[in-house]
């Protein structure tokens, strides 16, 4: 009886082990080492794998990968294609084959793969988020400055959604607080490999420029002129509708604008990441008016998904609401965590 129970128990363990193993993805490295786990993502040249022997995700450089195999579903993007939904495997070393939903098999060199995202594990695995906090205390006039920056994103096969919010509050004795905040909601749709369309809603309030609230709705499209595992550069543009209220005014100011923008992201600098973009808004309905929004962020990666970020945000308006300033900028240094 005991012998029979022992055999049954061992058989159950064998089945469980086989099931666990079957759920694992396999990665072969250039040095012929094997890695078993669950592939979560690959972006910016880094492959992230969840392994059973570590609580923290394992990260390897994509350039060091020789071949991979998985039965899970992924969103995959390459230099010469748009986003493809399907299973991935390596038919030969140095290549990746994507078996799409309509059973079309497309093969790419591994070095041409720009993005892989697992979508098997549900809604939360398509989300990304980050939050930064900063605080400065100065003895002179008891000045206190608090800043926060946050971002959340969601990705699907053909589209992505991003939301961000930044705030700066400066308090000093005997003077009014300085408050500044900005944010945006952006939806991107990718019909082709290098082209995309977008809808974006921006908002800004700034006591220095006497802006009670500015809401700008943008529609347009753009193209990625260069993209790799080290960087991307895109140019985009379109039309927008701008609605502004100023301190001391009861009526809204509405105007139509054209806009053009450029964005550069370099992420193959070791632990450094650089993101910069500029938006230029020539007015259609207000003669000779032009606005410019500029951003520069540099972040340094720390262990456990923490990072230090420093960044410049600049706003220019050649026809500001008098007597406010035409140029305003903030430089923030914060510590953050990403998920």
Would you mind describing this structure in some detail?
It is a single chain. The protein is built from 1 helix and 22 strands. Mean pLDDT is 85; it is low at 1-22. It is globular. It folds into 2 domains: 2-121, no CATH class; 127-338, monomeric porin ompg (Porin). By secondary structure, the chain is mainly beta. The protein starts with a helix and ends with a strand. A hairpin with a 4-residue loop joins β1 (25-29) and β2 (34-43). The strands form 2 sheets. A 12-stranded antiparallel beta barrel has the order 11-12-13-14-15-16-17-18-19-20-21-22.
Which key phrases capture this entry?
10-stranded antiparallel sheet, Porin, single chain, globular, disordered N terminus, 339 residues, mainly beta, 1 helix
Give the helix/strand layout:
Elements (H helix, E strand, L loop, with lengths): L1 H22 L1 E5 L4 E10 L2 E5 L7 E4 L3 E5 L4 E5 L4 E7 L5 E6 L4 E5 L3 E6 L8 E12 L4 E13 L3 E13 L6 E12 L5 E12 L4 E17 L3 E16 L6 E17 L2 E11 L7 E12 L4 E12 L9 E12 L1
Antiparallel strand pairs: 1-2, 1-5, 2-3, 2-10, 3-4, 6-7, 6-10, 7-8, 8-9, 11-12, 11-22, 12-13, 13-14, 14-15, 15-16, 16-17, 17-18, 18-19, 19-20, 20-21, 21-22
């Amino acid at each position: 009886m005991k012998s029979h129970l022992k055999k049954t128990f061992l058989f159950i363990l064998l089945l469980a082990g086989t099931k666990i193993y079957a759920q694992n993805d396999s990665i072969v490295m250039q040095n012929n080492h094997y890695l078993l786990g669950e592939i979560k993502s690959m972006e910016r040249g880094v492959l992230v794998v969840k392994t059973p022997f570590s609580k923290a995700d394992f990260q390897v450089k994509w350039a060091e990968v020789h071949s991979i195999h998985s039965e899970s579903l992924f969103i995959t993007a390459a230099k010469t294609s748009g986003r493809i939904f399907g299973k991935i495997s390596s038919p030969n070393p140095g290549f990746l084959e994507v078996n799409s939903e309509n059973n079309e098999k497309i093969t790419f060199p591994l070095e041409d793969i720009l993005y892989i995202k697992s979508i098997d594990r549900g809604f939360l695995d398509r989300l990304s988020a980050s939050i930064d906090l900063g605080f400065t205390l100065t003895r002179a006039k008891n000045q206190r400055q608090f800043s926060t920056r946050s971002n959340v994103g969601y990705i699907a096969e053909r589209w992505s959604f991003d939301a961000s919010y930044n705030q700066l509050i400066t308090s000093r004795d005997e003077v009014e607080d300085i408050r500044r905040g900005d944010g945006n909601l952006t939806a991107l749709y990718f019909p082709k490999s290098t082209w995309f369309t977008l809808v974006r809603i921006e908002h800004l309030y700034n006591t220095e420029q006497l802006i009670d609230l500015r809401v700008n709705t943008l529609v347009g499209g753009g193209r990625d002129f260069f993209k790799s595992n080290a960087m991307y550069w895109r140019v985009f543009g379109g039309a927008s509708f701008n609605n502004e209220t100023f301190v001391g005014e009861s009526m809204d100011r509405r105007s139509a604008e054209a806009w053009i923008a450029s964005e550069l992201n370099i992420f193959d600098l070791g632990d450094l990441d650089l993101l910069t973009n500029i938006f230029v808004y020539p007015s259609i309905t207000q003669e000779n008016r032009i606005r410019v929004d500029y951003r520069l962020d540099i972040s340094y990666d720390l262990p456990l998904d923490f990072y230090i970020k420093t960044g410049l945000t600049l706003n220019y308006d050649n026809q500001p609401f008098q007597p406010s300033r035409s140029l305003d900028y903030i430089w923030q240094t914060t510590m953050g965590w990403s998920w």
